[in-house]
Each structure stands twice: as structure tokens, then as C-alpha cells.
UniProtKB/TrEMBL annotation:
Domain Xylanolytic transcriptional activator regulatory: from-to ranges: 210-277
Protein name: Fungal-specific transcription factor
Chain intervals for the UniProt region annotation (Disordered): 487-550
Superkingdom in the source lineage: Eukaryota
Statement: the UniProt record of this protein carries the keyword Zinc: no
Xref: InterPro entries: AtrR-like (IPR050987), XnlR_reg_dom (IPR007219)
Length: 606
């Protein structure tokens, strides 16, 4: 049921369902309950997509696997898909075709995720026994169909709807082999098939499959020892492992899931990937470094043991991680570097715009998470100047995300975290800031950015032919603009709206029982990690990264008006507290550090 849906991706995603009490507070400020209705509609859309995509594998099995065998397309159909990709002759094959999915895969996807050895894959596709091998080798079939599905998705064959389109027809075939991948002996081809299925699942039509595919691929890769592969003959294993590493780590960081890959036990050398180098930018190596950084962020800040540590230690760790994030940013060439102006005219190579946008979003996602961490856990004991600086950093980061939405390709092949998740997270943050700072000098610019974000989601609705009702998201901008307009009216003109707000609050108090537990199923701009604040906070201000020497700030402080402070309710309102939140659990790390003694037995014995 939609009312039981608590998250979009996992237990602690960047977009989470916020306590009803918080939504009620915003609704009382707005003076109506349209926000509740809007959130209910969004929940219903997400729940429907999750339900539909989960039903696909079983429906395919019922339609096509009644005989227990995979129905392989005819040779003519397969030739139609690989035409121009490989010639079934003794002549050298090439990727010259413009209308075939394998050419689209190697042109548009392989440089970003270079886990395949192109020559090896092409040679097997070019073999005369391709049809026979697809019918008898289910691991190879899973890999082949997943690659074809991705190619179709990037070659006008994709769809925003689950189970619709040519790409999905091949992804279904790959999914039908999933059990054979899991219960087989494990192999490089099986890990690669799971990776390919994860890449397809990173899009909006199949997003709920991605964590499963990456987790199973990580378990299998470690079982096969790929995390320690260092011999000269293990090049394909190394390239596959490191693509898996950065995909799994960034996915876990976005969803809040625990990574399966243990960094302390990895000794596999990072290979050189010339196909992932864009002149002066080694995308592959930079992505691996980012994955290691977000793995440290998750391990250092968002585990039970880390949340339980004193706030002085916690803020010191946050500061160190912010410095590392800025150091990573500084190593990126200027034309790709996050925080610099996004100039498409400087990005000439194929896929350069896509890689630059991904790099910007990776950085901004990590920065948003660290900013939320400081504001939720440490800001209550920071000095007022430091608090204000952190709030301005949060606003600037959210604004930067929304500014970049004009460069997003609204297509079925675009990863969902770029297409919707991060823009939605930034929109919710900015919406909250606007509602609580209606008279701030910067609110007009924030409203304009909310309109830009609304335009992006409206483009998404148009491109998907209404399958994704992006106009629902665009309504946040309408609600914010309407509220600011009413707030800035003279008192005599807004008397009626104030009376409506009082009436709404009175009805809400009458309809809410003080003893009844409050539901927690509404969406709002929540903590990006979904974690909770420590129960005990030490006295005295703590340093934050933005004041640390050597940290390079990507934005000019002059971009925001410094004459007025920003208001955030969970920092500036003494009546607001995280009463709905509970600690993650007990910390067992020191469970056996003390001697255990049976009750009633003294040290001296009986």
C-alpha cells in the first residue's frame, strides 16, 4: 500500500519520508493542506512504479519459460541487432553502424562503465554459434541480453514505463536468467551480467533492481577473489572489480545501505582505462577516488558507532572529510571541475558534457550530505556566525543543483539519481528555506530556481508522455510563490488568509488526539542520511570545515545577501525537536571490553 511506503530507494535515502508532525507544521504556515495532498499523490506514483517493476520478472517467466528453456530470437532478428557491429565473415568487424544497440552501447555507455573487454565481447558475438550459445549458456545469455537492452535504451528504444519498449523486452530476457546467475558456480561473465543489469536498473524504469544487482555482484566478486586480483592475466577481473566498486559504493551512499565491499581487504591494483580518459581528465580514476571518499564518509559518520561518538569528535571528522572532498574537487581539470561555471562550449569530446554533469552532481551530493550532517547533529552548539555560514552553504549547494538541471538530458537512459533524485532533494531543501524565509532578500532568486526545477520536471512529464507526472513536483514552486506573495502583502490585505490559517490550525488540533501516535509516511526535505541526532551534545562551539584553513570554497560568499540571517526550524526554533526520531540502536563495539560477572557472585568466590 502507498501508505506503507517509507522510502524511495532504501532504509536511509537522500529523499526520505518525513514525520507527519513536520509536514503539519509547514502546512500550518502555508495556511492550507495542499502540501499533504501533493505528498500523497507523489507517494502513490512511487508505490505504483515499484509494484509494477517487481511484477515484471514473474510475468515474463509465465509468458516465456513454460518449457523451462529460454526462447532465443531467430538468427535474422539477432543479426538485425548486431548489424554494423560485427560482420559474420573473416573481415575485421567494427562499430560503424548508427542504428544498432551494440554500437550505441560501446559508443555511449562503455566509456563510463568500462567493465567489458570490447574485443573479447565482440569476438563472441561474431561467432557462428551465437544462437546456440544463447540457448545453452544462461550466464552468457544474461550478459548479452543486458548489453543489448542498454544499447536499445541509448538508441531510442528505451521507455520511462516499466515493462514497455524494445529495451525492456531484452532486459526481461536477462532477468529470466537471474536465478542461474545466483545459484551457479560464479564466474567473470556472471559478475559482468549483474553489472550490466545494474546499469540498466539505474534508470527510472527499473530503479528498484539496482541495489539487488550490485549487492549480488559484490558478493560474487569477493567470493571469486577479484578484490585481490593482481596477476598480469587478471586484467579483465581488475577492470570489472573497480567498475563494480565505484558503482556499489556510490549506490550505497545514495541509498544509505551498507556496502558489501570491505575497503580494508582490497588489494587489487587499479588498471589504466584509456577509453575512460577525456583528454586531461581521467574519469575512471577520479570516480574510483570519489567512491573511496564516500565510503569513508558513510563509515565515519553514518554507522551506529560513529553516531554515538562525542560531538567534538564527530564535527572534527566532518571537517576532515570536507577538506578531502575539496581536495578531490581541486584535482579535476577546470572545465570538468564542480563549483566552476558549467561551460558546454569547452566540452568537445563525445560524452564530455555527460561526464562533467555527473562529476558536478557527485560532488554536490556529497556536499549536501555533509552540510546536512553538520546542521542536524552539530549546529546547535556552533557559534551563530558558523551556523549562518553552514546554512548559506546549504542554500548555495541546493541552488547549484537546480541551476544544472537545464543540462540534464531528459531521456530513459539517464540515471534516476541525476534525472530526479538529486534535483528533487535540492528542490525540497530550497522549498523549506523559502517557506521559512519569505521576507529574506534572496527569496526571490530562490523562487526563480524553484521555477527552473519545476520546468525540468515538467519536461520529464512531457518526455514520458505523462508516465511520470512531473507537474506534481512543479507545484512545489507554485505553493512557495503563493505563500511568499501572501506573506509580503500589507496586513490589511492578508487578514482573510490569516483567518483561514487559524481555522486550519484549529481544525488540525481538533482532529489530532494527543495520545495517538503520529504517522511517519509523508515526504519532506529530511536529513539526507535518514540518521538521527546524538542524544547528548557537548557544550561549546565546534569548528566546521568551511572555516578551516586550506579549504577551497567553490562559491563566492557575495552570492548571498549577508545582511539577514536564514531561519531553519530545527536550529533556530527552540520548540522544534526530533521527538519522532529514535536512536539507531545500541553500540556493540565495546561489548566485550569489560569483564562479565554472574549476578550474586563476588570476585573472591563463594
Amino acid at each position: 500500500m502507498a501508505s506503507q511506503l517509507t522510502t524511495i530507494f532504501g532504509p536511509n535515502p537522500n529523499i526520505s519520508f518525513f514525520p507527519e508532525r513536520r509536514v503539519r507544521a509547514i502546512s500550518q504556515r502555508l495556511g492550507h493542506n495542499r502540501l499533504d495532498q501533493l505528498l500523497d499523490e507523489i507517494r502513490a506514483v512511487v508505490a505504483t512504479k515499484v509494484k509494477n517493476s517487481c511484477a515484471i520478472p514473474q510475468s515474463y517467466i509465465q509468458r516465456h519459460l513454460s518449457t523451462g528453456k529460454i526462447q532465443v530470437p531467430s538468427r535474422d532478428i539477432i543479426n538485425g541487432h548486431i548489424s554494423g557491429t560485427c560482420a559474420l565473415t573473416d573481415l575485421f568487424y567494427s562499430l560503424a553502424g548508427n542504428n544498432n544497440p551494440l554500437a550505441a552501447y560501446f559508443d555511449s555507455v562503455h566509456p563510463i562503465y568500462p567493465f567489458l573487454c570490447p574485443d573479447t565481447f565482440r569476438a563472441r558475438v561474431a561467432s557462428q554459434d551465437l544462437v546456440q550459445s544463447l540457448g545453452t549458456d544462461k550466464v552468457w545469455a544474461a550478459l548479452f541480453y543486458a548489453i543489448v537492452a542498454i544499447g536499445c535504451q541509448n538508441n531510442e528504444g528505451g521507455s520511462f514505463d516499466t515493462g514497455v519498449g524494445e529495451a525492456w523486452s531484452y532486459f526481461e530476457r536477462s532477468l529470466s536468467c537471474f536465478q542461474d546467475l545466483l545459484f551457479g558456480r560464479g564466474s567473470l561473465a556472471a559478475v559482468q551480467a549483474l553489472l550490466a543489469m545494474a546499469i540498466f536498473s539505474s534508470t527510472v524504469s527499473a530503479f528498484n533492481f539496482e541495489p539487488l544487482m550490485l549487492t549480488e555482484a559484490a558478493v560474487m566478486a569477493q567470493g571469486l577473489g577479484y578484490h585481490r586480483s593482481n596477476s598480469a592475466q587478471e586484467g579483465p577481473c581488475r577492470r570489472t572489480f573497480w567498475v563494480l566498486y565505484y558503482m556499489e559504493k556510490t549506490s550505497c551512499f545514495a541509498t544509505g545501505k551498507t556496502s558489501v565491499l570491505d575497503d580494508a581487504n582490497i588489494s587489487c591494483a587499479i588498471p589504466d582505462m584509456m577509453e575512460s580518459t577525456f583528454h586531461d581528465y581521467d574519469w575512471f580514476f577520479s570516480f574510483v577516488k570519489y567512491a573511496r571518499l564516500v565510503s569513508k564518509i558513510h563509515q565515519s559518520l553514518f554507522t551506529i558507532s560513529s553516531v554515538s561518538q562525542p560531538l567534538s569528535n564527530y564535527n572534527s571528522v566532518v571537517e576532515s572529510l570536507r577538506i578531502e572532498l575539496e581536495a578531490w574537487r581541486a584535482t579535476i581539470p577546470t572545465r570538468f571541475r564542480p563549483g566552476e561555471k558549467f561551460k558546454t562550449r569547452c566540452l568537445h569530446e563525445p560524452l564530455a558534457v555527460q561526464v562533467a554533469l555527473s562529476t558536478h552532481f557527485l560532488y554536490l551530493n556529497a556536499l549536501l550530505t555533509l552540510s546536512w550532517t553538520v546542521l542536524h547533529y552539530g549546529a546547535v552548539r556552533l557559534g551563530s556566525a558558523q551556523q549562518e555560514l553552514m546554512k548559506r552553504d546549504l542554500m548555495r549547494t541546493a541552488r547549484s543543483v537546480l541551476e544544472l538541471t537545464v543540462h540534464i538530458e531528459v531521456a530513459p537512459s539517464t540515471p534516476v539519481w541525476i534525472l530526479a533524485v538529486l534535483p528533487l532533494s535540492a528542490l525540497m531543501i530550497l522549498f523549506d528555506l523559502v517557506v521559512h524565509n519569505a521576507n529574506h532578500p534572496e527569496t526571490g532568486l530562490s523562487l526563480a530556481l524553484l521555477d527552473i526545477a519545476g520546468g525540468h520536471f515538467s519536461r520529464l512529464e512531457y518526455a514520458s508522455n505523462g508516465a511520470l507526472p512531473g507537474s506534481l513536483i512543479a507545484e512545489f514552486a507554485h505553493l512557495a510563490r503563493q505563500y511568499v506573495s501572501e506573506t509580503r502583502k500589507p496586513k490589511s490585505m492578508s487578514r482573510d488568509s490569516n483567518e483561514r490559517s487559524i481555522s486550519f490550525q484549529a481544525q488540525d488540533r481538533v482532529g489530532t488526539s494527543p495520545s495517538a501516535p503520529e504517522p511517519t509516511t509523508s515526504v519532506a526535505p529530511a536529513d539526507p542520511t535518514g540518521l538521527v541526532a546524538p542524544a547528548v551534545l557537548p557544550q561549546g562551539p565546534e569548528p566546521v570545515a568551511s572555516d578551516a584553513p586550506g579549504v577551497m570554497q567553490p562559491w563566492s560568499p557575495a552570492s548571498l545577501d549577508r545582511s539577514e540571517a536564514l531561519f531553519l526550524p530545527y536550529i533556530d526554533d527552540p520548540t522544534y525537536y526530533f521527538g519522532d526520531l529514535q536512536l539507531l540502536g545500541i553500540d556493540l563495539k565495546d561489548l566485550f571490553d569489560h569483564s562479565y560477572q554472574l549476578p550474586g557472585v563476588s570476585d573472591s568466590g563463594v
